Amino acid sequence: MLTPKMTGIFDCRKYDQSGKKTHDQRELLANTDNVTFSALFPINEVPEVFLINGQLDEFARPKVSKRERLAAQAENRQPVEDVVSVKFKIGQNVRWFNEHAKPCDRPTNVELEANRWNVQIDFARKDKNAADPLKPSGYWCNNIMVEKVENNPFAGQAFAPIDDPEPEEEAAQAEQAATGTQKHDDLPF
User: Fold this and answer.
1) Which of 54, 128, 153, 178 meets the CB 3.0–4.6 Å disulfide criterion with 137?
2) Per-residue CA distances from 162 to 54, 141, 159, 171 (Å)
3) How far is residue 116's CA from residue 150's CA, in Å, rounded to a whole number?
4) Cα(62)–Cα(179) distance, integer angstroms
């Protein structure tokens, strides 16, 4: 199955079973280890690939966004699940492509962790197996096309164009610079 273009983050750190370590305290995985990619969708805009018979797939989990949690706390009410979290498992045999759909090398875990990414993923859904709970399940990536999200807040912005001098003025300025003479206006008195 193929996802639409989506924005998210990679988690390239070892899982902490104690739950006491913050994200930055967890150890970074080797570049050859499995990592995960996470994306969030508004609950009413979930792509069809994450729905089964019109219902949300078990691997696409509804969550409460930070904005909704804060709003509910301010209004003294229970928060409503307003986003869906989708995680993809990315193994070492995944084929990586750049934003021009050309094969590329896998970015290092440091590069993956440091940025937000626009991705499109070709994936397989593996069901849970009750007889063998350790068997891999979830969304497993086969191919991934990545594009780094621009972190520059000024990207795509431009200041007003500079008024360029007229060609005649440029020619006069160049002539004055070449001859060493400058035009002086006469004083009014």
Assistant:
1) 128
2) 55, 49, 9, 18
3) 8
4) 76
In this model, does residue 119 exceed pLDDT 90? yes
Q: Which residues pair with 41 in a beta bridge?
A: 84
The answer to whether 128 and 81 are in contact (CB under 8 A) is no
pLDDT above 70 (res 108): yes
Question: In whole angstroms, what is the distance from residue 35 CA to residue 17 CA?
Answer: 16
Structure-block tokens of residue 123? 């994936």
Query: How many alpha carbons fall within 13 Å on the CB side of residue 154?
Result: 2
Q: Could you tell me which of 129, 30, 144, 40 has the C-alpha nearest to residue 90?
A: 144
In terms of phi and psi (left: phi > 0; alpha: psi -120 to 50; beta: otherwise), the region of 19 is: left
Burial-class residue 120 by CB neighbours within 10 Å (0-12, 13-18, 19+).
middle
Helix (H, G, I), strand (E, B) or coil at 77: coil
54 phi, psi to nearest 5 deg:
80, -5
Position 31, amino acid: N
| Gap between the Cα atoms of 67 and 60, Å rounded | 20
Give the residue extent of every domain in the chain.
6-148
Q: Model-level pTM?
A: 0.72
Taking alpha carbons only, the member of 83, 43, 85 closest to residue 64 is 83
Q: Which two tokens stand for residue 63?
A: 């969550």
Mapped onto helix, strand or coil, the DSSP state of residue 167 is helix
